[in-house]
Amino acid sequence: MKRLFVLCLTVCCIVFLLNSCKDDDNPSPTADLEALPADTGGTHTPHKLNSDASPYAYYMYTPSGYTNDGPKYPLLIFLHGSGEQGNSSTNAAMLDKVLVNGPPKLIKSKTWKPKYPMLVASLQCHDGWWDVTKTKKVTEFLMANYAVDTTRIYMTGLSMGGYGVWDQIAVVGVGAHITAAVPISGSGNLVPGRAQRASAIPIWSFHGVDDKTVLPDFDIAMTKAINDLSPKIRAKLTIYPGTGHDAWSKTYDGTGKGTGAATYDQFDMDIYEWMFQYKKGK
Description:
The chain is α/β, with parallel strands linked by helices. It has helices at 2-25, 31-34, 102-108, 132-145, 160-172, 194-198, 217-227, 249-252, 271-276, and strands spanning 43-47, 57-62, 73-79, 119-124, 148-158, 180-184, 204-208, 236-240. Helices cover 31% and strands 18% of the residues. The longest helix is centred in the first third of the chain and has 24 residues, at 2-25. The model is unreliable at 1-24 (pLDDT under 50).
């Protein structure tokens, strides 16, 4: 009987040690996020152009548990489309144009509910087109002035903003500080070297097959060019039938799940949860 007890105790210890080693070797990719305070409704604050050192005006959403003293939070940077441009230094109300689409729209309507809390910076372009240098400088400004987890900086944008996202990851590359990106209804240039730079960053792009405003050709070609390089994280592309140019509404709110064309990557998980899988250095 004593031998049986010793044997059982030994087996239990071995199982415990094996499980402990397994957890240490393969921690959850979101363990750090699970430790953050739950977001019960945060604050959405406008920062008009020239109100601080940011080269673009922006709305900043801070979750309910956020303080500048920490802990550090993931940051989502949103780039709007051409119709939402404005100069808030001359007319502060112009900044509210960024609230009409994407994450800032969901925040305004109180339907913003990602699985984990995150800061959301919705930038406003005031000078015709998203500039790669200014966008990078805004990212660095936010890193310096908010409690940002710099291993978890995500970027998304629609239409003109989709172009802006592609420029950050394909022109600037890893120097843009972006951990993962979701360009929607965007485009760019297939200049040599851009696929190589973009391949270092997880990308999931979305487009409408019948988009006549911005054709899906670039997304298709760039995704193939990246994946031909056998990147560590394969680039994903979801193509919707019947959406026209607006491939963003049902991507940001998740209602487009399961509606993508079968020959491309399926929209089978929340894009924010997809982002949260990725952390620099992991």
